[in-house]
């Protein structure tokens, strides 16, 4: 009997010899960006509400990229909404200098409202 080759290519796919079997040498693309808070929240949402979509993203190797992109978009949207709300409500550096506690309270209030908007629009939809 002839010696089996350690690596073969057939139909454009590389195979590695493992024991007596050839296993496809498939690699997922590496993603180095973090998925962050909003990516983790959306992944949990997909797991609970849309498991088929989650499995599709996992099997195609697109999950990490999808979640990292979503996290970046959600963070940018949050920052934009917060800036708009601060301008509309008069939360300025002048207020920060004159009344720090009121400034902190109003900024926290704006942050919480903006985050609710982002969660509703992007994460849980």
Brief descriptors of the model:
125 residues; mainly alpha; 5 helices; 3 strands; TnpV; TnpV protein; coiled coil
- Please work out how many helical segments DSSP would assign: 5
Q: State the helicity in percent bands.
A: 55-70%
**Overall 3D form:** elongated
- Structural class by secondary-structure content: mainly alpha
How many runs of DSSP E, i.e. beta strands? 3
The gyration radius over C-alpha positions equals: 24 Å
Beta-strand residue fraction: 5-15%
**Overall average pLDDT:** 94
Name the helix and strand elements from N-terminus to C-terminus, one letter apiece. Answer: EEEHHHHH
What number of structural domains do the residues give? Answer: 1
Main sheet strand line-up: 1-2-3
Major sheet summary line: 3 strands, antiparallel
* N/C terminus separation: 59 Å
Low-confidence stretches: none
Protein name: TnpV protein
InterPro entries: TnpV
Coiled coil: 71-98
Keywords: Coiled coil
């Amino acid at each position: 009997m002839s010696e089996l080759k350690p690596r073969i290519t057939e139909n454009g796919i590389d195979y590695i010899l493992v024991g007596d079997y050839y296993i496809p040498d498939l690699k997922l693309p590496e993603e180095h960006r973090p998925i962050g808070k909003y990516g983790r929240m959306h992944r949990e949402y997909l797991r609970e509400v849309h498991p088929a979509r989650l499995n599709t993203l996992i099997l195609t190797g697109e999950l990490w990229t999808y979640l990292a992109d979503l996290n970046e978009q959600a963070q940018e949207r949050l920052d934009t909404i917060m800036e708009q709300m601060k301008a509309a409500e008069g939360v300025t550096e002048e207020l920060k200098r004159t009344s720090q506690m009121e400034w902190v309270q109003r900024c926290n209030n704006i942050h919480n409202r903006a985050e609710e908007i982002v969660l509703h629009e992007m994460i849980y939809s």
